[in-house]
Amino acid sequence: MEHLLSTQSVDGLVEEMPKPEERGQRMFLHSSFPWKKHNWQQFMQFSRKSTIALADLLYQQGRWGKALRMAAYAARFDMSAASGCLRAHFLQVCGDIHGQLARTYAEWERQAEQYDECNPVMLKIFKFLSQREESEEDIPTEYEWAVRFLHDIEANLTVSVRAYQEALSKDDVDEVEMELLRKRHGNSLNELGSFYMHKATATMTVQGDACDETSLHPIWKQSFACFERGIDVFQSTHDNVNVALLTANCGRLMRGFARSMSSSDGKLQAKECDAYKKAIEYYQKALDLLGKANKSKRLRAVSPTGVNVSELKESVTWELSTTYFTLACLLQEATPLELMERDQVEKTIADYMNRAVQVLDLQASSARLPIYQYRAATAHHRLASMYHNLLRDSANEHRSKQLRLLAESHYQKAKHHFVPDEHPLEFLRIQLEQVALCEFLMQGAPLRATKNLIDALDHLVACLPALVAIQRRFKEADSEAEAFEKEALKLTQLFIARLQFTLLGLNKALSSLKKKYVARRVHVPALDDSLSERQPSHERGVTLVPSRSKEDTVKQLKADYASSLRLAVGADKSVDPLIDFVSALVQTSSILKTH
Asked: What's the mean pLDDT when you consider all of the chain?
């Protein structure tokens, strides 16, 4: 960069200029020599343009410290005499530099060293200028605030916003440049708003319960003000994508604001609930804006300002689902009966949980599909558990029937998304809850009790893939093994207890029945390939099981129960005996289901 302004060329230029003591004080600018005054003005104009161009070039090369130093040189060439367009360009470059410095704070030390390096050529020029002004001091500048090197993220972002804002107020700027300036201004406001939002969130994380809610309010307000100003700027450019981005950030801010207002006793506050609802409004508005942009064919894979539109839409959708889910969980865990009636709480929880699932595209081949499926499974599981608990407290027969059907429906939907191989603990937990539901329904006549016990056994047998996955995970060492093993051991012990209870109950129930049970054709994996081949074509896939009387079935169940009493998952963490036992129960369960 220095070769553009060599010392030799500057020395020659300085020597050609008359000294102030020649022909009287300040003769060079005297009205008797208008051509010299004109040349002086041309020199200053050329110096301003050259140094601003050099600062822009250095910025593009990633030498932001040198670029800011060059901008400081440009500011000393009497910027007040420059055209509005040139001053706008100068302020834009300053805004770009400070914005980049805010994003790369890890490089401040190296960039500060570049900023402190003085260009000998420029020093000679300014020495001459100081002589012209009869002073050894720097010439005062109105843009001193814009050319300082700042070791603070907030300060750099604030200067960047101010630089773009003042650039937009200059005259003689063409519409194309004005459009670019508005976009830069909007982006800088978004960055400053995000900085304040993350600052408030980090303060909550560090201070925890000791965090003072009132001390965070000014930070939330600063963040929200920046986002609102940014939205106004992008609306003036009809940039729906960036308006959606800042609107979504408002939703994220409201979620953080809601968390900051949570009470220490865990109860949901009215203002906390309102903040979550406001966040939902912002997220929904952001999705509507992206939808409008798509319909008007202005939605691109990447917006002109660098926003990846598809990623933005997925992110907003996920955060909207998360907000619905979080609010539903808070209502479920800390029911605010002082805010609404119990029936209304139940309906609101169901509504929010269903919306949390509905906004997700569970059919798309997206990288986010696994977490979408997990969210859907978790939401259905929570709803099933809620209806299960309500069923236990219900005294109305018609309502109890509705609650049972709802609970069973959501349990099935949860199991559909919780694949046993990937989420064995969650799958096992759901099956055990269904076993508990069957046990609760064991009331009345023995036949009804027998049916529910058979259903319970069916749920226990369905745990086989999950048990196999748990055994496989036991043999794999990873960072989360300890937590997984602890939960798995607890669930398998509960599984064994419910299995023993179910087998004992079936023994008693079948012993009290007079009806003879005979098994005929059962849909289970083929036990004998040769037998399967001899079946008629319309019966293929159906296993023929030898006829069995009630006495034989009871005898087998007694043997199974006796064997189950020896089951345990000890310190060796081996689930293989349990897996073998459950595998043997598959046929017994299938036989019972046919009666």
From this structure: 80
Residue type, 71: A
Do 50 and 164 contact (CB within 8 A), yes or no? no
Q: Which two tokens stand for residue 429?
A: 């937990």
Q: What beta strand segments (E) does 230-357 contain?
A: none
H or E segment at 119?
Answer: none
CB atoms near residue 360 (< 10 Å): 23
Query: Which sign, positive or negative, has the C-alpha torsion 164, 169, 174, 179?
Result: positive
153 or 172, greater pLDDT: 153
In the numeric block, which tokens belong to residue 313? Answer: 């839409």
The residue-averaged pLDDT of 547-569 equals: 65
Write down the residue that tokens 């997700």 correspond to: 360
* Gap between the Cα atoms of 55 and 7, Å rounded: 19
Average pLDDT over residues 256-274: 84
Q: What three-state secondary structure class fits 521?
A: strand
Residue 522, H or E segment: strand 521-522
For 342, the enclosing helix (H) or strand (E) is helix 342-358
519: Cβ contacts below 8 Å, ≥ 6 apart: 545, 546, 547, 548, 591, 594, 595
Q: Which tokens hold the place of 24?
A: 């009287």
The burial of 115, by beta-carbon neighbours within 10 Å (0-12 exposed, 13-18 middle, 19 or more buried), is given as buried
Burial degree of 514 (CB within 10 A; 0-12, 13-18, 19+) = exposed
Alpha-carbon distances, residue 19 vs 14, 38, 42 (angstroms)? 9, 17, 18
Q: Contact 454/506 with Cβ under 8 angstroms?
A: yes
* Pairwise CA distance, residues 450 & 513, whole Å: 9
Specify the length of the chain in residues. 595
Q: Which residues contact 28 (CB under 8 A, 6 or more apart)?
A: 17, 18, 20, 36, 37, 40, 132
Looking up tokens 């997220």 gives: 283
Helices 464-474 and 424-440: angle between axes, nearest 10 degrees: 140
Dihedral of CA atoms 246, 248, 249, 252 in degrees, nearest 10, equals 170
Q: Please identify which residue in the block is written with the tokens 């539109």.
A: 309
Q: What are phi and psi of 522, to 5 degrees?
A: -130, 135
Give the 3-state secondary structure of 299-314. CCCECCCCCEHHHHHH
pLDDT of residue 343: 86
State which amino acid sits at residue 508.
K
Whole-number Å distance between alpha carbons of 541 and 532: 7
Question: What is 427-445 written as a DSSP string?
Answer: HHHHHHHHHHHHHHT--SS
Contact assessment for residue 190 and residue 227, using Cβ atoms and an 8 Å cutoff: yes
CA gap 529, 80 in Å, rounded? 96
How do strand 543-544 and strand 521-522 relate by DSSP bridges?
antiparallel
Tokens of 269: 């506050």
Retrieve residue 454's tokens: 């058979």
State both tokens at 441. Answer: 């329904």
Rounded Cα–Cα distance for residues 5 and 8 (Å):
9
**What confidence tens digit (pLDDT) does each residue in 369-389 have?**
899 999 999 999 999 999 999
